[in-house]
Amino acid sequence: MMRAFLRTVVFMLVSYHLTASIAEANGPIRLTDVTSQTGIDFVHTDGSGGQYFIVEYVSAGIALFDYDNDGLIDIYFLNGMAMPGSTETHATNRLYRNEGNWRFRDVTAAAGVGDTGHGLGVTVGDYDNDGDADLYLNNFGPNVLYRNNGDGTFTNVTAAAGVANGDRVGAGTCFVDVDADGDLDLFVANYIKFEFAQHKARTMHGFPVYGSPLDYQSDADTLFENQGDGTFRDVSQSSGIAAKAAYGMGVVCSDYDQDGDSDVLVGNDVGANFVYRNDGRGHFVEVGLLSGFAYDGRGKIQGSMGVECADLDNDGRLDLHATSYQNEHASLYRNLGNGLFDDVSNAWKVASDTVTPVTWGNVLADLDNDGFRDIFIGCGHLYDNVDQFDSSASYRSQNLLFQNQGGKRFVNVTMTAGSGLDVLSSSRGVACDDLDNDGDLDIVVLNSRSAPTLLRNDSPQQGHWLQLDLTAKSGCATAAGTKVEVQCGELRLIDEVRCGRSYQSHFGSRMHFGLGAHNKTDRIIIHWLDGDKQVVESPGIDSLLQVRQP
Amino acid sequence: MVECWKKALPLAPEPTEILDQLAKQAAKVEQHQQAVEYWQQILDADKTVPLLHRNLAASQLVLGQVDDAIRALDTQIGQTPEDAETLYLLGNARFELQDFAKAKQYYQQALLQQPDHSSATYAMVRTAARLGDTETAAEYAAKFQELEAAAQEADLKVRQQYDDLAQVKVRAAVTCAEAATLYRQHDRPDAAVKLLLRAIEMDATNAKVIQEAAELYLGQQKFPEALTLLQRLVQLDSTPANYYQLGMLQARLKKYVDAENSFRQIVKLAPKEAIGYRALAKFYLNTNQKLPLALQTAAASAKLDRSAESLFVWGWALAKNGQLLDALAALEKAVQMEPENKVYRELLASVRKTIASQPGADSP
User: Residues A236, A241, A243, A245: is their CA dihedral positive or negative?
Assistant: First the structure.
């Protein structure tokens, strides 16, 4: 009798949940939570042992890349290490091979990428131009460079390459060819100067909480120049990168001023964001304030987290998006040209719904293939006990999804996006790529202290699409800085190849363009970083196009 | 808080203040449409709310309602022509209309009124950049960075001091003590004591709370518990009154050595006041020990304080030391001052009787 009753109750609960999800999955973008069917058993730890070390909450990014060149995008999750007082043991980063049909297999040990350091940031790039993607980890503690051996395994070459970057607190990181010499250099953001002995215990409303970064000294970022022989040289001082210290978080590299070289944009916590303008030879001047990206529209400092870049209004210029702390809106900066940005977060209606949560990973991607890039934001507070003293906040919260409605206006479609947006978690790194090669972009979210979330894109009435996989003539499989313009009738879409982006993550090695109703592509124009221009006429649609620089 | 204001709104005879708070809170969390609606309600009812038009315009600007914002700002500037924030917002409105030259003028006016207006300084950077005036942009960028550095420095100082656990505990202790008062008033001493003990646990430095708890224990005849608290109390708050209370309890618990020390402590703390000497004298007299000392301290008390009580104790000590005639004089004065005091009268009668019973005595 009791068992029958329980079955009924369970059925009712399940039915209710399904009904609720189905009822809500009626929006233009639908993301279905398929985590449970993927075989992914990764659970993130920040190593916390109750002492609230500041290096815990910043937590980690995620990398999506095809490590074995089998045409399927694989997933690499960063993980934390046990902090003093923690009982956590044997946490490692994990690599999951995409086996197709939304099944993934843990190949960490076989691939040799199970770093046990405190993982914070990650980037992927073919630094040795051998045609496969290498992996760089920006840790709290020594960083790690894994060279891809091309056979499904990696070798830790950190010491030989000279990129351990001391014993610092890392953040975002990017492979970027700063001097356009055909090999990828390495930008490494640093957060704070911290040692356990310097730990400051803090309380808020009497509850133990993490200290502020302002409790510690800020740290300058690092630039390593690739010397072309498998080694790197620290050029932070001579390049101008180390001229200023700040609390670095997310990083993205982009030719924001369209002068033909890769600039570096850094989201800083509790301080002005940086725009490192490249002179084309790998020397930088920080121009964040004059560009308009350093502060929000009112000149206020943001607690910036993730930084992303995309042309959101299809005007041929790359706009910027930076997530931020609670009670600050995530800021959207329209690129006005001439190296200037304007905070259009309110005007484009993406501000107010981002004020309440702490926002982290951000993805600017065309999730419904309508030709306009949408915004997905990972959310979650950093205090695990915030619910106890702040009724407006929650450690676990819903992520946010904004649909781009024609370029200058966004609508929050979170509540109609299906089960993938029902998940309550404390998200950090967010990444997107086409995990099932069906032409639309799926999303992977790293959630602090819990399992990740894999969201399959099940959006209805999708438009056409085109994906590009570019290889430079140097052999570099990740030709960072290469710009692409896709022309379909009146539609002009631009993007760049980036290695490292958003909140301390990497994704998008394969470029994706939603084409909307256009059933043919007129041409693709590729501006390789070395100055070569390549035009591909009538490249087709709804397919992955592989292009090698002649 | 917002929910409370919303509930209070229909009940308030003058809702303007509540609406203003609701609007400001809505603007703070960037719910500007809601803010505008609240401010419009105020505008309909009471146009005299300070800076109403400015606040309304700030939200309207965020919503892209530039023309409405300019109208509101023009009204505001008529009322407060030197308000830097209004001038800054007027600049923002012109900036939105891409009238950068006019925007610049307003920002400059704002900075004339308030040279450290950081948002206006920042706006000058943006406006100059939009006008292609890189020199001015750089000039204001430098000023802005100075202002930012000063603000950061101030913020850093606050943060470095920041750790609110101690303050929270103190506030929570006060709340517990206030709740305890309610329980006391409703004749629930057990619940009151429990709360007071929690308060003491959170804030062991609140002497008033410790005293209240001790008093409750005394009322409940829980003397050992009261003793513990009073011992803590004198550590925190070494007043003659607290030592007196402690000494009295120690004497009651027959901890005579401790009691004597407590009373001596009073003398030490207040050598020019009678209370310590009198307490010591009474203690010696009650315990019938060190009677010469009782006389000495009682005399000191009576010398410092010619109150009925001091005279009584002095008389008592004199009597105990066999100086009956002097005792009689002191006690008569005490009774004269407090004729209704039964104890004084009884002792006076007793002394008179003793004197009368002595051989050769004619009269007291």
Answer: negative
